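Notes from the 1:1 (GR / supervisor)

We went over the backlog. Supervisor wanted to see one worked example end to end before approving the batch request, so GR pasted a single chain during the call. The sequence is below; no edits were made to it. Supervisor asked that the structure be written out right there so they could see what the output format looks like.
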Amino acid sequence: MSFQAYLDTIEDRTGMTPRELLAVAHERGLDAPGTKAADVVAWFADEHGLGRGHAMAFWHVLTKGPEISAKHVGSGGPHADASTTLWLDGRATRPA
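Structure output shown during the call:
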């Protein structure tokens, strides 16, 4: 599954765009120094029934922003992303 596909599924399951979830994470202090990925994993599992893979994709965005490695961009494989920049404003508004 691509990074973007993880984010799209997170949006489907939570009803919030990745950008909205970043705001919630900030309100909860999950972007503070010393916060562990396990805190996001627990949040996603407890409140949204999402697994570790989804939580870790979100953790990447939370800690590193929307830029990802070009390793899988355009590779055509199951983990291929269309761009090195993830779309955080929701599936419905993503440019074609």
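Supervisor's comment: The chain has one domain: 3-89.
Batch request approved.
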